[in-house]
């Protein structure tokens, strides 16, 4: 990331929020919602600008934006049907502001809304130009980051993660095409991908189209399934999520009975992906794993024992 991204993106979001210039002196500041090597997101007034990752394919991103635009009952629609600009060779997209999930109110987490939106998405016919869902590619990227971190030396938590990764089928490692039947998928579902629009109490909508595409729908259920299996998501919350998904006609799992034959591979892949991300960060900052991080490493060890 270069030093130019934030100031250039600030100009872009201010111009988008006041296309004709403010009619009065603007007293609203610009807020940084995210600032990472792969994503920078700023808010000014009721407009949000996102600078996507440097390696983002603008053509695929435009197709993903078109999908979000044609599904306003599922996704927060973009303000423009294509990237609005480029900042430091990174495509920029513009969005209306939506109120995020409150991390300090876990009892009010919108599990039912998330499940219902996913079911609607999974039942939507894709267009012929729909790109692949990027979930497995993100998992492979997390493993590549871990391998880079391990280049400086071994770590005792790494072997179970590497064994669990090697035990996954090739498609879950982005080394082979995803199996069918495939549907429209979000590709990176977690509660941070939901907002209320209009803020603060409009209906819930999905955000983040970077991984949206055609793929295995169970992948979108895999993160909550993984956290439930690792003991990090209460059983009641998992039941709320799964029950709502089934009630909405979601095709990723059977209508009743055991969902785990469908969820097993994606849930294992998300466990490995998340464990690899946490471990790479711990190595980079030379710190010990916390309790949550260790629980994911332990899960990897159970998935692929020595």
Notes on the structure:
This protein is α+β, with helices and mostly antiparallel strands and 306 residues long. The chain has two domains: 93 residues, 2-Layer Sandwich (Phosphorylase Kinase, domain 1); 198 residues, Alpha-Beta Complex (Aminoglycoside 3'-phosphotransferase, Chain: A, domain 2). It is built from nine helices and ten strands. The strands form three sheets. Strands 1-2-3-5-4 form a five-stranded antiparallel sheet, covered by helices on one side. Strands 6-8-9 form a three-stranded antiparallel sheet, covered by helices on one side. The chain has a two-stranded antiparallel sheet with strand order 7-10. A hairpin with a 7-residue loop joins β8 and β9. The longest helix is centred in the last third of the chain and has 26 residues. The protein is globular, with a radius of gyration of 20 Å. It starts with a helix and ends with a helix.
List the helices and strands and how they pair.
Blueprint: H1 5-17, E1 30-36, E2 39-44, E3 47-51, H2 58-69, E4 85-87, E5 90-96, E6 99-100, H3 111-123, H4 135-150, H5 158-166, E7 183-185, E8 194-196, E9 204-206, E10 213-215, H6 222-229, H7 235-247, H8 260-285, H9 291-303
Antiparallel strand pairs: 1-2, 2-3, 3-5, 4-5, 6-8, 7-10, 8-9
Features:
single chain, Aminoglycoside 3'-phosphotransferase, Chain: A, domain 2, 9 helices, Phosphorylase Kinase, domain 1, 306 residues, three-stranded antiparallel sheet, alpha+beta
Provide a quick synopsis of the model.
This protein is an alpha+beta fold and 306 residues long. Helices cover 40% and strands 14% of the residues. A five-stranded antiparallel beta sheet has the order 1-2-3-5-4, covered by helices on one side.
């Amino acid at each position: 990331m270069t030093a130019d991204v934030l100031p250039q993106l600030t100009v872009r979001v201010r111009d988008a929020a006041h296309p004709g210039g403010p009619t009065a002196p603007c007293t609203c500041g610009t807020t940084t919602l995210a600032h990472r090597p792969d994503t920078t997101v700023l808010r000014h007034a009721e407009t949000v600008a996102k600078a996507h990752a440097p390696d983002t394919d603008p053509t695929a991103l435009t197709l993903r934006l078109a999908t979000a635009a044609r599904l306003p009952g599922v996704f927060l629609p973009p303000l423009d049907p294509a990237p609005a600009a480029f900042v430091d060779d990174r495509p920029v997209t513009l969005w209306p502001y939506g109120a995020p999930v409150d991390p300090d109110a876990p009892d009010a987490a919108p599990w039912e809304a998330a499940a219902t939106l996913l079911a609607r998405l999974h039942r939507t016919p894709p267009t012929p130009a729909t790109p692949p869902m990027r979930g497995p590619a993100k998992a492979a990227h997390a493993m590549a980051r871990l391998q880079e971190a391990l280049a400086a030396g071994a770590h005792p938590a790494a072997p179970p993660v590497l064994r669990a990764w090697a035990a996954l089928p090739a498609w879950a490692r982005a080394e082979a095409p995803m199996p069918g039947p495939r549907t429209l998928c979000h590709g990176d579902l977690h509660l941070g991908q939901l907002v209320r629009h209009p803020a603060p109490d409009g209906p819930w909508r999905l955000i983040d189209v970077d991984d949206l595409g055609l793929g295995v729908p169970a992948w979108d259920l895999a993160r909550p399934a993984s956290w439930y299996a690792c003991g990090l998501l209460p059983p009641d919350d998992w039941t709320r999520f799964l029950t709502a998904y089934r009630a909405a006609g979601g095709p990723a799992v059977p209508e009743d009975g055991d969902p785990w034959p469908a969820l097993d591979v994606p849930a294992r892949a998300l466990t490995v992906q998340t464990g690899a991300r946490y471990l790479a960060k711990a190595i980079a900052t030379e710190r010990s794993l916390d309790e949550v991080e260790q629980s994911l490493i332990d899960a990897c060890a159970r998935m692929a024992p020595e």
